[in-house]
Write the structure tokens for this entry.
Amino acid sequence: MQRLAPALREDNVSLDLISLIKTILAATKEISFRVSQAHLGGLLGSTLDENIQGEVQKKLDVVANELIKDILLESGFVKAISSEEEDDSVAGDENGKFLVSFDPLDGSSNIDINSLIGTIFSIHEAIPGMAADDPAQFKQAGHKQVCAGYVLYGPSTMLVMTTGKGTHFYVLDRTHGGFLLVERNVQVPQDTKEFAVNMSNQRFWQAPMQNYINDLLAGDTGPRGKNFNMRWIAAMVGDIHRVLQRGGIFTYPADSKNPEQPYKLRLMYEANPMSYLIEQAGGLAMTSKERIMDIEPDSIHQRVEVIMGSKNEVEACLAYYQ
Ligand code: F6P
Ligand code: MN
């Protein structure tokens, strides 16, 4: 099995970007270890603080954020970072070539129940002439990402990453401490019989999503003429990993639960990187109106509606909005 760096060189990834990726992965290996220590590491449970999103921070959220932030800011490769757990972007090296956005620990509510969690990251090129402390440099659409990926802390620790030459799977080999390539050019099946959505929000969705899901639930007695299965891990990394592996549609649609916040997932460090991975695997990643990666961001913590996965199923869903 191929090691990470040679696999990336085969995709013509620059040495600078390979070094940056290895830097991020060094932090995730440490996070993987801390996660596996659970009660033994004293890091389960919550802190007394809330993040900018108004969510209570888990101890592991904070530790994961510090590990990634420190290693990136010390690396010299990075001009600035933005994180789910940081109020504002944080300046790095003025000569750094890259901008990194990340969700240090996605699926935080799974931490204390020993279930799937992961780190999501998205890399853009820094814009020459803009200051390292200028948050406006993060206002770049998802289609400008040069790399996106996640590390899933599951029964095995897996890296799923794209640099624009397909989406590849790697597994952390603890015998030598590196990630090994296990599947090149993963393809999301175009058709599916599986959907992922938090059904408890159903009554708050807009009519098109209500109608679409009702037709899935009607199974072979309804207009779709086939039975659908449902899965919800409550960690986007876990649900998207399943979709990449065996197909499916994943959605967090707009809802009216809190009129001031119709969307849940974050564009910069959740929706964009996952969209890049899904599209590079032949899937579709949309809102009900447009391609997610074409959205011009207006702030680093912006939220967005997400409908992604198997191409034909995403198109079937979007047809309800027309
Ligand atoms: O980061 C947000 C997140 O935890 C995602 O990972 C996940 O898909 C979603 O929220 C879960 O939402 P809910 O709590 O509504 O099930
Ligand atoms: Mn998250």
User: Anything to note?
Assistant: The longest helix spans residues 15-37. The first strand starts at residue 46 and ends at 50. The CA atoms of residues 52 and 180 lie 36 Å apart. Residues 103, 106, 236, 270 surround manganese (II) ion (ligand 2) (CB under 6 Å).
